């Protein structure tokens, strides 16, 4: 079944997306054999079976995750199913989401046109909506990856698209699942919540074809004091709290933070305070930041080395007092 990546041709608009994906891109993560599509599951040639429903193929049973990953899986499930299932999906939000997406990825819209794209950590699917909106023609196929149950929310939100399919799986398993490398992978705010961000990056880059791209958004360390405060609050303190309690706290913190919206004075005050501790007038950003099981922080030179040691040219930019890293690399 496997062919060279240059010879694979997908015709997603006129075929069932899952069928095309199974016939061309997927292999069994347990034994490496081919799949066939059944009414309620997918079945490999050696009878390994995985559920599929609502345009989601579920590989989550393949590997066990540790308690930190479980906490992250639960926190992002709560975030995108209970609190922010519709965030970014209204027409008035699309321009803001598009600007954020292009800022995070450092991509041009035509990078996605007629290509196979992976959203590694798709949340509620809002950036899949962006990619399909900005590229003409749209991608041949977008594969949304997530381990949390929010992937079913993403599938529902993206039900209007015919070129999208979802895999519920640990992103580190992607090299074991894909028959062929893809054209573009983006991962926005995800790898720094995995137990080993570098190892996760190296799993993803194995799935990028030659001259393909991978874009990352990662947390930067900021200054030494902010790094220590962030590490303490995110990795030792808040992860022990129930999600509802964290949500209530960040909601209360966000109320006085509305002062940061005042022209001139507000941004200056926000810039000053966030050199010592991360707070925001945006409840979602704080909840997202403080509920994961683990959070790592990185430096620009470190991420550049990740790219280059894996055969990529890259541009990595440090922004927002060195607390945000935006990177894009092309496989040589």
Describe this structure in words.
By secondary structure, this protein is an alpha/beta fold. It has 2 domains: 12-220 and 297-331, Vaccinia Virus protein VP39 (Rossmann fold), CATH 3.40.50; 224-290, no CATH class. Helices cover 36% and strands 20% of the residues. It has 12 helices and 11 strands. The protein has an 11-stranded mixed β-sheet with strand order 1-2-3-4-7-6-5-8-9-11-10, sandwiched between helices. Strand 2 and strand 3 form a beta hairpin. Helix 3 (94-105) packs across helix 4 (126-134) and helix 9 runs antiparallel to helix 11 (283-290). The longest helix has 17 residues, at 67-83. Residues 1-15 have low confidence and may be disordered.
């Amino acid at each position: 079944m496997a062919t060279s990546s240059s010879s694979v041709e997908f015709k997603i608009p006129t075929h069932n997306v899952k069928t095309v994906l199974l016939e061309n891109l997927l292999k069994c993560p347990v034994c490496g054999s081919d799949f066939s599509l059944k009414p309620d599951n997918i079945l490999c040639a050696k009878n390994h079976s995985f559920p599929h429903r609502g345009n989601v193929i579920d590989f989550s049973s393949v590997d066990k995750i540790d308690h930190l990953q479980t906490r992250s899986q639960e926190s992002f499930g709560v975030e995108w199913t209970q609190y922010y299932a519709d965030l970014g999906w209204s027409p008035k939000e699309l321009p803001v989401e598009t600007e954020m997406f292009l800022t995070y990825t450092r991509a041009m819209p035509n990078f996605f046109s007629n290509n196979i794209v992976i959203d590694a950590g798709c949340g509620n699917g809002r950036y899949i909506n962006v990619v399909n909106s900005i590229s003409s023609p749209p991608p041949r196929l977008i594969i949304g990856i997530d381990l949390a149950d929010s992937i079913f929310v993403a599938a529902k939100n993206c039900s209007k698209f015919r070129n999208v399919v979802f895999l519920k799986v640990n992103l580190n398993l992607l090299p074991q699942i894909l028959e062929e490398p893809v054209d573009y992978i983006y991962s926005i705010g995800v790898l720094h919540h995995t137990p080993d961000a570098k190892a996760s990056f190296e799993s993803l880059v194995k799935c990028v074809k030659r001259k393909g791209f991978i874009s990352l958004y990662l947390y930067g360390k900021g200054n030494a004091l902010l790094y220590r405060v962030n590490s303490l609050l995110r990795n030792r303190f808040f992860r022990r709290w129930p999600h509802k309690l964290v949500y209530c706290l960040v909601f209360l913190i966000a109320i006085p933070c509305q002062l940061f919206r005042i022209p001139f004075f507000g941004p200056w005050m926000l810039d000053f305070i966030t050199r010592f501790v991360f707070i925001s007038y945006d409840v979602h950003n704080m909840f997202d930041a403080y509920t994961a099981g683990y959070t790592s922080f990185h430096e620009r030179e470190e991420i550049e080395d990740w790219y280059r040691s894996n055969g990529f040219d890259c541009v990595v930019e440090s922004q927002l007092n060195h607390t945000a890293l935006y990177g894009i690399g092309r496989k040589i």
